[in-house]
Design a protein that fits this description.
The structure is a single chain. Helices cover about 20% and strands about 35% of the residues. It is an alpha+beta fold. It has a six-stranded antiparallel β-sheet. Strands 30-29-28-27-26-33 form a six-stranded parallel β-sheet. Strands 15, 16, 17, 19 and 20 form a five-stranded antiparallel β-sheet that branches. Helix 6 runs parallel beside helix 8 and helix 12 packs parallel to helix 13. The protein starts with a strand and ends in a 6-residue tail after the last strand.
Length: about 800
């Protein structure tokens, strides 16, 4: 086996224009044009409108390459295209060798007969995706879905990244190009066509069954060998495998198995399975290597007193799924690479997330994404790429294309220990139930793809991973009821789209909430990058252009006025929107965590962004942490303390929630103060919480203080200490923050240099200060948006070149 990469420098041409444009592969037309000053930055102001023509234009890529005689002497020479976006015709030395029509597939073309020793040429011509999508709609009929103003086409007839056409948080940028690696690959005598590894766990013992399939080109006998390694050292002997008609099977016992756990439950040791293919003289032919984790990761659905359970278990241990929804990290599909993935996935792990849902309107991410999730213990709920619209499930050509797509991606991803679930689609069942889509797609036709084809493929190709037909989905009762709290998963948008108050979340005892969210603006520094001074009003044309939710900015203001005083500045409004967003998600998540084991999952919408704009994300498009992300570290804490006010009873109930595999033992404390910070009552008491449970650990009667003081002048500070260290905190208020009688605090900063580029900043205050945040350009903070009370300093680690320009603000500075 030999490989010749065709990545690197290519030449790009616009159809009908002979002017060459230097191009880079992997890449796309947009980034090639940007790199050479041929396109204005689409993120700046409303420049997005200047690039719409790109998706309506045919393009072609070309390059030359050299083939050595020994390379061409192999039995088979394939051109392997790991990603073509999307409608491609490929020519080698002027001969058409194949066509592609699915962005998500890997394409192999036999090119031995058209190659020559020495210089060769390759051209990949891309037809305009928008032209094709509109033509198919006209010829075969449009399929209903949620389209304008969110997106410019439903994409039903083209297997391309759905959000390429726009979404309610992203731009309308229809891309084209060779977006993943492209290479020539040779084989001699045979090649490995499939390897499936399954695990068997029994009373602490683990064995692996390795099923091998090889494509044999001639009559020469071949055999295989399998070995398992850990950290480069062999943990099993090399096991020979006899192949009969190219197929063979072997089982290996793993001595002293080290189990892989999701984040927060244990470590993530990884093993390597190596399969080699050899001729009878032990000459090397082909190899296959995958990293795996030894674990069981199951979806548990059982009848119970509330309906039917829906939770995940790792190695038999149920866990509350804490996480978010993942969208593509760039509108340019090739752009997310290891460094960007690492920044975003590590940020998820840093705030105790243990699951991400790869949403069905994007792409099946690059291998690096899943490898990082393996390393960080982030379980993956993987949607197939169908979202928010109907598809032609009765069209044979479409279904064959989808079957090949699903097969490619299930096989590519199935060995990652992070893979927890394959899900058929995003919100199509929701649309079937409430948007009239059944006039075009009946439930029986829906089932052809999501109840038959996809689950059968998952059962065959990834038999140890669960399948779920759609999100949301109810498995009992009326399938049109996509908000059934008794079973399945739900998307709860009563807050935001339904204008329900935040308290509404506490009326929803759903089993697993796989979408819910609230928007905020990026921080001022990010907004300044895409605006001019005259744009910096949230009702300006440019600010509204970047807002893709039709009700977006007005909804933020609606809720902001419900909770906070109106900000007196543009910057203050941006920051306050982030605090508001974090508060909304805190209300939701803490309520569901207190509702364990009835509720067992909360994946907020959304983790990340693909361009600078207001959205539901907790990380902006550059990976900057919004207030929500800092708050997520607290409300996703493994051992959590929360205070819940009972206004009618004049009581605060203190809850402790334990996600760990061991009992939680510590000391709880509450301090009741005035809004200025004067201590009125203080107490501590021991706390013990069984692993994987939640409990009320204390109740405080505050009626006499509510009678003596106004609810506007009371705060309760709740904390939990383990071994003397505070590991969880909460603040209870007895009115909306806008009505609190807060004084202007004097916050002092004591900056201590830890090392070059690292500082410890200790904050103290003379009066209660809420949502205190530090600002410093290009800095990273260990915490932010914290509450301070007099006599209780907090220290935040700051990573920055210099701390001289460090600023501190709190809630009162916004009005």
């Amino acid at each position: 086996m030999a490989q010749l990469t065709l990545n690197g420098a290519w030449t790009l041409y616009k159809q009908g224009d002979p002017t060459p444009i230097p191009a880079t592969v992997p890449g796309c037309v947009h980034t090639d044009l940007l790199a050479h000053g041929l396109l204005d930055d689409p993120f700046y102001r409303d420049n997005e409108l200047k690039q719409m023509w790109i998706g309506e234009t045919d393009w072609h890529y070309a390059r030359t390459f050299t083939v050595a005689p020994e390379f061409l002497a192999h039995d088979r020479v394939l051109l392997r295209c790991h990603g073509l976006d999307t409608l491609a015709t490929i020519r080698v030395n002027g001969v058409e060798i194949g066509r592609a029509d699915n962005m998500f597939r890997t394409w192999d073309f036999d090119v031995k007969s058209v190659l020559q020793v020495g210089e060769n040429t390759i051209e990949v011509a891309f037809a305009a995706a928008m032209t094709y999508a509109c033509q198919m709609d006209a010829e075969k009929g449009e399929w209903p879905g949620w389209v304008e103003p969110m997106r410019i086409n439903s994409g039903a007839w083209i297997r391309k990244e759905p959000c390429n056409f726009g979404w309610d948080w992203g731009p309308k940028m229809v891309t084209s190009g060779i977006w993943r690696a492209i290479e020539l690959v040779t084989y001699e005598a045979a090649r490995l066509s499939d390897v499936l590894v399954t695990q068997h766990h029994d009373n602490g013992e683990v064995s692996l069954t390795v099923k091998i399939a090889a494509e044999v080109f001639g009559d020469a006998p071949i055999h295989a060998a399998v070995q398992v390694l850990k950290e480069g050292a062999a943990v099993t002997a090399t096991m020979p495998v006899v192949l009969t008609d190219g197929a063979g099977l072997v089982t290996l016992r793993i001595p002293d198995p080290h189990l892989w756990w999701v984040n927060g439950l244990g470590e993530q040791p990884l093993y390597e399975v190596k399969v080699g293919l050899f001729d009878n003289g032990d000459g090397f032919i082909d190899t296959w290597t995958k990293r795996i984790g030894l674990r069981t990761l199951t979806l548990e659905r059982h009848p119970d007193e509330w309906g039917e359970s829906f939770y995940f278990a790792c190695n038999g241990v149920p866990f509350f799924a804490k996480g978010a929804n993942w969208i593509p990290a760039s509108p340019y599909p090739w752009e997310p690479q290891y460094a960007l993935y690492q920044m975003l996935i590590s940020a998820a792990a840093d705030v105790h997330m243990n699951m991400l849902r790869v949403w069905g309107g994007g792409v099946y991410e690059d291998d690096a994404f899943y490898a990082l999730c393996d390393e960080y213990g982030i379980a993956i709920w993987q949607d197939f790429m169908f979202a928010c619209g109907t598809y032609p499930t009765t069209d044979a050509e479409f279904m064959a294309n989808v079957k090949a797509e699903a097969t490619d991606n299930i096989k590519r991803l199935r060995h990652h220990p992070c893979m927890a679930l394959w899900c058929g689609n995003n919100e199509i069942e929701q649309g079937m139930g409430g948007s009239g889509w059944q006039s075009k797609l009946r439930w029986d036709d829906y089932g052809l793809l999501w109840d038959k084809l996809l689950p059968e493929l998952v059962a065959e190709l990834a038999p140890q991973t669960a399948y779920w037909p759609g999100s949301p989905h109810t498995p009992i009762g009326d399938r049109n009821d996509h908000m059934n709290p008794a079973a399945g998963d739900t998307h709860l948008w009563g807050v935001w789209h339904g204008k329900q108050p935040f308290e509404w979340y506490h009326t929803r005892p759903d089993r697993f909430v796989s979408e819910f969210g609230f928007q905020s603006f990026p921080e001022p520094a990010t907004v300044y990058e895409y605006t001019l001074p005259q744009d910096r009003n949230i009702t300006s044309y440019v600010m509204e252009h970047h807002q893709r939710s039709g009700i977006g900015n007005s909804t933020i203001i609606h809720y902001l006025l419900d909770w906070f005083r109106l900000s007196t500045s543009f910057d203050g409004t941006l920051w306050l929107s982030q605090i508001l967003q974090g508060m909304a998600m805190k209300y939701a998540v803490e309520g569901w965590r207190r509702n364990m084991p009835r509720s067992m999952g909360a994946l907020y919408w959304q983790l990340n962004d693909m361009w600078p704009a207001p959205s539901w994300s907790s990380l902006d498009w550059k990976g900057n942490w919004k207030a929500l992300h800092y708050m997520a570290r607290r409300f996703f804490a493994p051992l959590l303390i929360t205070g819940v006010e009972d206004e009618a009873g004049g009581t605060v109930h203190i809850h402790a929630t334990n996600d760990q595999r061991v009992e939680g033992v510590g000391e709880a404390e509450y301090v009741l103060t005035t809004a200025h910070g004067e201590v009125l009552e203080h107490s501590t008491f021991p706390v013990r919480v069984t692993a994987g449970t939640t409990a009320v650990v204390g109740s405080v009667d505050v009626r006499r203080w509510l009678d003596a003081y106004s609810p506007r002048d009371l705060l309760m500070w709740v904390s939990l200490r383990v071994d003397g260290a505070v590991i969880s905190e909460d603040l209870v208020t007895f009115c909306r923050p806008k009505h609190l009688e807060l004084a202007q605090p004097s916050i002092t900063l004591d900056v201590h240099t830890v090392s070059d580029g690292e500082f410890d900043v200790t904050l103290t205050t003379d009066a209660a200060a809420l949502y205190v945040w530090l600002e410093l350009a290009n800095a990273k903070f260990s915490d932010n948006f914290v509450h301070l009370r007099p006599g209780t300093p907090k220290t935040i680690r700051v990573r920055a070149q210099d701390a001289a320009d460090l600023k501190v603000r709190s809630l009162v500075d916004t009005y």
